[in-house]
Amino acid sequence: MCVLLSANNFTGTIPDTFGNLKNLTDLIDGSELSGKIPSFIGNWTNIERLRISDLNGSGSTFPDLQDMNNLTVL
């Protein structure tokens, strides 16, 4: 099953509820997100493509991605 979030109009911080998206395979940010990249993205073990760019706000460390064995595009 492919679960894709792309070309959306999200604004604000990445919600904590996104941590529940265990089957997410693609997150392609085309929105106005702000804040830090949450550590829970390291739990998205089915993710294949993760594209987050132009995140507004203060700098943050990138979460641990070592368990993202399916990740092909970062």
UniProtKB/TrEMBL annotation:
This is Leucine-rich repeat-containing N-terminal plant-type domain-containing protein. Transmembrane segments: none annotated. PANTHER family: SOMATIC EMBRYOGENESIS RECEPTOR KINASE 1. It comes from Salix brachista. Pfam families: LRR_1 (PF00560). SUPFAM superfamilies: L domain-like. The lineage of its organism: Eukaryota, Viridiplantae, Streptophyta, Embryophyta, Tracheophyta. Keywords: Signal. InterPro entries: Leu-rich_rpt (IPR001611), LRR_dom_sf (IPR032675). It comes from the Eukaryota.
